[in-house]
Amino acid sequence: MRGRTGRGVYEKAEQHTQGSLPPAEGAPSPLFRERALMPLMNTPFAPGECLKAVESMEEGAQRDIAWAEYYYFSGQPEKAIGKAQPYLTSDDAGARLSACLICSYAYLHFSQDDKALAGLAQIERALHDMVDGSPQAQAESAFVAAAASILLHLPLPQGMPNMEEMLPLLPQGLRAFALYLRAHSLYLEKQYGLSAGIAEAALTMGGNRFPIPAIYLHLVAVMDYMSLKDRDHAHDHLMRAWALARPDDLIEGFGEHHGLLGGMLESAIKPAWPAEFKRIIEITYRFSAGWRRVHNPVTGEEVADNLTTTEFASAMLAARGWTNQEIADHLGVSINTAKRHLSHAMEKLGVGSRKGLERYMLR
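Above: the chain's sequence. Below: its structure in C-alpha cell form.
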C-alpha cells in the first residue's frame, strides 16, 4: 500500500498518550489469531443477518470485538468503546489492535482526539514491534496501520510494509477492506479511474460477500465516479451500498464519507429515507469535527469546519468545476437555491472565487 509517509501524527500522539489509552504491555504475540482481528469485517453474512452472525461467534474476544464493530458501524460509538476498551491491553494481539482501531475512530465522535491520537500511536508501536514477526503478523499489523492513517487522510507511518505484497496473507474479508484502503489512497492521488477499477474488481472477485468491506468499496467508487462526473455509476454504487447497509443499520460509513460523496446522499438518500438521512448527517457532524481536529493540525491543511453539510457538498462540487446548474440538478433544487448554498459557503470561508474554495475542501 503506497502513499505518503511520515511521523507527524505519531509524534503528536505521543504527547497525548499520558492519561489516555494505556500503552501495550510488552511486544505483541508473534502470531495474530485471525478470528480476533476485526472478525465481523471478515465475516460473510446476508443483509439483515448481521446480529445473527455476531451471536454465532465464539464467546470471548472474537464475539466482543465483533459487537464493538457492529456498534461502531451502526453509528453507536459509545457502545463500541464500551465493548472494545477492555481489550486495549489484551494478550491477543489481534483483539488489541482491533480495539485500538475501533476506539480511535469512536473517540473522534466525542471530541476526544487526545485518546484517538494515543490509539494511533499504539498501533504504530505494534507495527514496528512486528518487523521481525511472522509474515502474517506483519500483514495484519500493516493492515490496521493503513486503516488508521488512510481514512484520516494522514501520512502512512515510516517502515510501512508494501501492502500489495502482504495482501495474499490476509483473510478474504480483510483483503477486501485493504483493497478499499488502496482505492481510497489512489483517490487521494486523484487517480480516480484506477481507484474505481480496484473497487469494481474487488467487489467482482468476492468482496461483495463481506458486507462491511463491500459498503466501503461501493462508497469509494461513488467518490471516484462523482469526481469523474459520472453520476449514473455513482448513483448505482451508492444504492448498492445502501442495499447492503440498511437492513442491519450499518450507516456509519455513509456519515464518514459524506463530504467526499459530492452531494449524492442529498440526491439519492434524503428524498426516500429522510429519517435515516437525518441520522447519517448527525454522524457526519460528530465524526467530521473530530476528524478535522486530528487531520488539520497534522497535515497543515484547512478543511472547512463551519459549513452545513449541504453547503459543503455544494462547495465541493463547485471547487471541482461543476456549474451552478449541474449542482442544482444533482441536488434536486432550483438554481437559485444552489447559488445561495454556494454563496453562503464562500461568505463563511471568506473566499471570492470558486478557485479559492479548493484549500478548504477535502482532497
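Residues 1-34 have pLDDT under 50 and may be disordered.
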